[in-house]
Design brief:
The structure is a single chain. This protein has 323 residues and is an alpha/beta fold. The protein has 2 domains: 177 residues, 3-Layer(aba) Sandwich (Rossmann fold); 124 residues, 3-Layer(aba) Sandwich (Rossmann fold), CATH 3.40.50. The protein has 7 helices and 17 strands. Strand 13, helix 4 and strand 14 form a beta-alpha-beta unit. The longest helix is centred in the last third of the chain and has 17 residues.
Length: 323
């Protein structure tokens, strides 16, 4: 029997992030022929035709109060749509907004939650969800005890919808926000430059550690990233040393990433850093120390000076991509 699934679109800079389409792919697996609803919260968000991406109903809540994320306003808007849909499963991205909003509404509604899902299996009587535990050193499979329940899905892990194109019904919803709903107000948002490619959704990441030695040491990494269309990341050690901004930090206390290719340059491989990138599909490590822990999880290892190796890689990739 089909289920009703509610997807909360992940919005950044008035556009849907790639993880939204991954959420719709997961929702269609869980729906098993049922209806997939998606709610878009924001102000003047560019919403494409989501029927092509697996949505049956699109709920759009457009209000200036939702232009920037605030817990109270987003919670009110979400709960309004939730009562209208009455879904069996609610899907959020395991992003900055999703990690804040999902447990908040789960608590308010008295629902169970499974966080940071990286794989789902909907073939059995009950779906099972795989999530990392112990800082990514182990994986566990979890099944929901009852419905409805809430899920947060890690970006760049599940495939987007690839089924037949649907014709999505669009519902524009007006919600009145009053002073009690706006206990937090955003006056200004200052964006830090991080290279243009979102780390959490990047397919390729070139990351630097203390081995880059200085802020200027990131320049060869940036040149390689530009050739590959990659994002630049960093270990906590590099951030603590002042070589780069903390917005680039990957690890247990930074961003968790799962790219197709992760190139670690001058990173020793501390447990804190491995927790944020060990699930990358292919890991290449470049380090002068042949005993560095990063080599234990790397698919390919290069023992050498990153300032010699990285420019050679940049030159080789540039030739390969332009030939």
């Amino acid at each position: 029997m089909g289920k009703t699934i509610l997807v909360v679109a992940d919005v950044r800079h008035q556009a849907l992030r790639q993880v939204t389409y991954e959420l719709l792919g997961a929702a269609n697996q869980l729906a098993n022929g049922g209806a997939v609803h998606v709610v878009v919260l924001g102000h003047q968000v560019e919403v494409p035709e989501l029927g092509a991406h697996g949505a049956d109903v699109v709920w759009q809540v457009d209000d200036e109060a939702l232009a920037h994320y605030t817990p109270a306003s987003y919670r009110k808007a979400f709960l309004h749509i939730y009562q209208s849909v009455s879904p069996q499963v609610v899907l959020f991205a395991h992003s900055a907004i999703g990690k804040d909003l999902a447990p908040m509404v789960a608590m308010r509604l008295g629902l169970g939650q499974i966080s940071d899902v990286i794989h789902l299996d909907a073939s059995g009587e009950k779906p099972t969800f795989t999530r990392p535990i112990y800082a990514g050193k182990a994986l566990t499979k979890v099944a929901p005890k009852s419905e409805p329940y809430v899920l947060t899905l890690r970006p760049n892990n599940l495939p987007p919808y690839t089924g037949e194109q649907k014709t999505a019904q669009v519902q524009n919803v007006d919600i009145t926000f009053e002073t009690p709903d706006l206990i937090t107000m955003v006056q200004e948002v200052i964006h830090k430059a991080t290279g243009g490619v979102d780390l959490t959704e990047a397919k390729i990441i070139v990351s630097g550690g203390r081995g880059v030695k200085s802020a200027e040491g990131f320049q060869p990494l940036q040149e390689l990233a530009d050739v590959l269309g990659a994002a630049v990341g960093a270990s906590r050690g590099a951030c603590d040393a002042g070589y780069c901004d903390y917005a680039l930090q990957i690890g247990q206390t930074g961003k968790v990433v799962t790219p197709d290719l992760y190139i670690a340059c001058g990173i020793s491989g501390a447990i804190q850093h491995l927790a944020g990138m060990s699930n990358s599909k292919v890991i290449v490590a470049i380090n002068k120390d042949p005993e560095a822990p990063i080599f234990q999880i790397a698919d390919y290892g290069i023992v050498g000076d990153l300032f010699e190796v990285v420019p050679l890689l940049t030159k080789a990739f540039k030739q390969a991509l332009t030939s």
